[in-house]
Amino acid sequence: MSLIWGVEPVLVPPITGTAHLVRLSAEAAMKVLQAQPSDVLTIVAGTPYNVSGKTNLIKIEVVEDALKGEAKTFGE
User: Is the Cβ–Cβ distance between 42 and 60 less than 8 Å?
Assistant: First the structure.
């Protein structure tokens, strides 16, 4: 996937699961993009994790919920 306007790549530790991915994404958004707790994130990833070419996951989360560990897990 090509990086386009509005995408900010951030290096994070290896992902251990979807909840971990969501939390790390919210933390990075707050640190790098100065996201606010009420902001909404769109997370695009692939499973299995750490395997390139497998983009098959899109999650939309509120930053505050993601940081509390209350991220929704619809479809899991």
Answer: yes
Q: What is the pLDDT of residues 59-76, one digit of tens each?
A: 899 999 999 876 554 444
In 3D space, the residue among 58, 71, 64 whose CA is nearest the CA of residue 35 turns out to be 64
Q: Is the overall model pTM greater than 0.85, yes or no?
A: no
Domain count along the chain: 1
Domain assignment present for 75: no
Among residues 17, 23, 43, the alpha carbon closest in space to that of 31 is found at 23
CA distance 28 to 25: 5
Residue ranges making up the domain that contains 53? 18-68
